[in-house]
Amino acid sequence: QVQLVESGGGLVQAGGSLRLSCAASTSIFINVMGWYRQAPGKQRELVAQLTNFRATYYADFVKDRFTISRDNAKNTVYLQMNSLKPEDTAMYYCYIPSSRTWGQGTQVTVSS
Hints:
112 residues, seven-stranded mixed sheet, four-stranded antiparallel sheet, mainly beta
C-alpha cells in the first residue's frame, strides 16, 4: 500500500508563495497525481492534477497562480503556489486516484 507524505505548508501573507511537496513511499508507476484542498465547513475540492505524460488540469480559481509538477525519479509531486489569497487557506491533500490513496494533508494559511 503506497503512502503519501505532504510537506511545505505554513503561514504566509497574501501575495506570498509556498511550494508543497508530496512524496510517495514506493517506486510504482503512478499515472495521475493530484492536489485537493478542504477549507473548514467546505467540501474537499480538486486544485490540480498531473498525469505521467505531463498533461495538467487546474481549477479555475488557481489558474495562472499555481503550478503542478512531478519528479518521477523521486516519486514526488509538487504544487507551486504564487500570489496566494486568504481564500486559499485550507488543508491541502495529495491524492492518487488509481489507488484512492490520500496523504495526511498539510495546512496552508494565508493572512490578509
